[in-house]
Amino acid sequence: QVQLVQSGAEVKKPGASVKVSCKASGYTFSSNYMHWVRQAPGQGLEWMGRINPSGAGTSYAQKFQGRVTMTRDTSTSTLYMELSSLRSEDTAVYYCARDSGRWAFDIWGQGTMVTVSS
Amino acid sequence: QSALTQPASVSGSPGQSITISCTGTSSDVGGYNHVSWYQQHPGKAPKFMIYDVSNRPSGVSNRFSGSKSGNTASLTISGLQAEDEADYYCSSYTSSITWVFGGGTKLTVL
After folding, report:
1. Which of residues 30-59 of B touch A (CB under 8 A)?
2. Disulfide-capable partner of B51 in A9, A12, A104, B87 (CB 3.0 to 4.6 Å)?
3. Chosen from B27, B35, B98 to mutate, greatest number of chain A CBs within 10 A
4. How do residues B1-41 score in pLDDT, each as one tens digit?
5. Mind listing the pLDDT tens digit for each residue in A24-40?
């Protein structure tokens, strides 16, 4: 079945970087754009950006420009999201989500908790 | 890009219908028929419920329906059931080639 499996929880200090992975299976990896969405504790969903697994083109939310990098490895059907210069406000669950092809997100990873604390 | 506006909470009794609104601008909700809705139970990933304003993905109950008028989209749940109790989020594609979510609505089934 189609699924996205993300890497495990991370604890980072302020100023550090974190790299979260998302392994896709059950469909043709290059056929769908992929997005990253985060959710701070008790808060709503926030779109961070998307990547084209086929050509690696990216589009980021203005808020994260300069701090986020989305990449992919087609040989392992894995996506990566790296966020740098971490601050406490970046503490959140980070989700990868597949684009349905209709401007929506149809398959979601299980989420990766990133905690930023000194 | 500001978040779309949703009511913080709504409630209803089993069997009743409720509607959740999602208000944006002409640059997102009003400008495109690319509004989607997601259901999220505590501690779980969001679930895809509605796309392109009113279309249901395969496997989603027909008790869930969507609509849009101007800059406001709506999700209606009819025949409320206990398992519908969850947080609901709307999302819209925007003119900046980005996506924006609503702040979320907590549905309580009384």
Report:
1. 32, 34, 36, 38, 45-48, 51-52, 55, 57
2. A104
3. B98
4. 789 999 999 999 999 999 999 999 999 999 999 999 999 99
5. 999 999 999 999 999 99
